[in-house]
Structure formats: C-alpha cells, structure tokens
Amino acid sequence: MSRKNYIFTSESVSEGHPDKVCDRISDAVLDAFLTEDPYARVACETFATTDRVVIGGEVRGPASVIQRVEEIARYCVRDIGYEQEGFHWANLKVDSYLHAQSADIAQGVDASGDKDEGAGDQGIMFGYATNETEALMPAPVQYAHAILRRLAEVRKDGSEPALGPDAKSQLSVIYRDSRPVGVSSVVLSTQHLDPELTSDDIREIVAPYIRETLPDGWLTNETEWHVNPTGKFVIGGPDGDAGLTGRKIIVDTYGGAAPHGGGAFSGKDPTKVDRSAAYAARYVAKNIVAAGLADRCTLQLSYAIGVSKPLSIYVDTHGTGRDVPDAEIEKAVSKVIDLSPRGIREHLKLNKPIYQRTAAYGHFGREPDAEGGFSWERTDLVDALKRAV
Length: 389
Known about the structure:
Blueprint: E1 6-13, H1 18-36, E2 41-49, E3 52-60, H2 63-66, H3 69-80, E4 83-84, E5 87-88, E6 93-100, H4 103-109, E7 123-130, H5 139-156, E8 163-176, E9 179-192, H6 199-213, E10 224-227, E11 243-244, H7 249-252, H8 273-290, E12 296-303, E13 312-316, H9 326-336, H10 341-348, H11 382-388
Parallel strand pairs: 3-6, 9-10
Antiparallel strand pairs: 1-8, 2-3, 2-11, 4-5, 7-12, 8-9, 12-13
Helix pairs in contact: 1-3, 5-6, 8-10
C-alpha cells in the first residue's frame, strides 16, 4: 500500500538560470525554422558561459534562418534580462555550428511510398497527471514554477528592480491522506543586483510574492525559510555557471513525482518523439484523470527509430482507478488517438512556432493559448475516453 502521509520536494529554476538560457535559445531557433517551414527538421543544442554562446546541431530548413542565429540568441538573452558584466546581450560572442541533418536519420524518419513517417529515435516517454491541483499537476513542482514566474513578472515590470534574472526555488510539500495540505520548507535563491543586500533583505522582498502564490494556510509558523542561504548572489547566469540545453528534464516535467524516459525537449522539432510523444503522454494521462477514470495516472509510450506505431502503451493508475481496469484504459487510448509521430503532430498541431514559450517554468500544467501553444494541456479527449471504456 502506498504511503498517504509524507513530505515531497520539487524544484524549479527561472528563465535566467544558465541551462534555461540555453533551452530558450534552442527553442527560439526551432521556432524560427518552423515559422519559415512547418516541416523543418531541427535538433539544436546551445552552450553558454562567460560572454559566449555556442550553438550547434543538425537542421533541415531555410538557410536564411541559419544566417539569423546570432540575432536570435542576442534577442533571447536581452529579453531574459542579462546586461551584466560577464554576460551582456550586446557584447557576448555567438558561435553557430548548425549543419545539415544526417541523411541516414532522414531516410529512417521520412515517409516514402507506402511507408508512413517513422519516429525520429528510439526511446520511452512518460506522461503523468494527478487531481491534487486544478492543473492536474503535482503540487510541489506546480507551485515551485508559480513562485518563479511571479518573481520574473515583478522583476520585468519594474516593481522589484533589485532582483536579477537567475533564480531557483524548492518546495517541500506536506501530504496528509495523499493530499497536499502545507509546506514544511521554502528554499529560494535569487540573483540580486545590489551587492549590499543581505539574505534578510532578499527575504523581505520575495516573501510577499511567495505568500500570495501559495494556497491559503500552506505557510505556517512552522514552515522553514531558506532565502539566499549562501549569502550574496550577484554574479548569476552563464557568467556564474555554464549552461547547456536539456539539463533540467525533471524541472521541465513533473518535479520527480513521475518517471522520466531520459530525453530532453528543447531545440527538437516534433518528429523527435522525445518531445512530441512526451507531450502526447501528458495529454492522454491528463484526459484520463479529467475524465474521472482515476485520481492519478502514469502513461508510458515506447518507439523505435523509423517505425511509425508505438511499440507499447502502458497505463498505471496507482490503485486510484474507478471501476475500469488499467488494461481496459490502455485499449481505450488506442481507440481515441493515433499515437504515431504523424498522428501526434496532427492531433496536437505541433508544426507551429510554439516552443520558445515552453523553455522555462515547465512544459506541463500550463494553459493552452490561442496560437496553439500547450495544446497537450487540453482536455478534449474526455468524452471519447468515457465512451471507449
């Protein structure tokens, strides 16, 4: 029997975290290609360190985009807010080493004759949903993201000019009878532009925003606070610590509350099932929970490079299923959605420049937008699933 009373911890990092700077640039390059050609192939990686950004990877798309890579990178760094000595959008050096996609990979993935389009790689992908929050996300990671989004808002609108772009949050959430009821500890480290500010000064700035972000009653006199616990945090971003695309896969997904197949998302076009199938797995798991078939659901998909259909579909409702066995839910999933790479892309409309917005604060638990972003957060499969079980 699973535990019902425990403390679970998840973290988030801000858009100015070195790895997230790299994710943003990689996804901005991807969006630029998809704007020009919805069927472009992109696998873009970014590395950032003091005064330097290095971009590499494999692409198949308009050459005009490659010529704009430096401009794209500088725009991202500027929008994030880096104008510090050691990492300034106007002064950093940008090197691009993007090159043509491997013909061997292309022949396995492309549709031809009577062969449907295959997966861009082998791998396993997981989706997860739980009804413990309105977004059907685990509470620790959902609120860790929300805190940093709120701090980014007040930094950028000028309300809190002392804050810098680089930040990390961590929440330890108390569960009673399997439901989140409070926070045992808050950890927040944020870059600050005034070197004279102390940890107490920073806590005074950020505490009101943390309190307004968390549910009423979750913070008590017993909650431990650790705000800038190492003291001064003036040198931030890639000048303080090198960044790399794809290093925050747990932050990007479920904060450790669910399995992860191992593949990163940013910089990859939707033929790469590391990304598109992980989105589809979240989409299906969320709809299973939204349909009332279970309180929690983990869904696994697996693929082989060049093969169009998933090799397996696995559903686990962790003993929270209502009347319908997990095996029957698996069968229903196959009936209501085509989980081939093409089927996923077409159903979720993934061949759009919608990826830059995913680069920070999580790929899941976000509101679908009018331009098609976060389409995998819709709950429009609910009725079809109910009919199919």
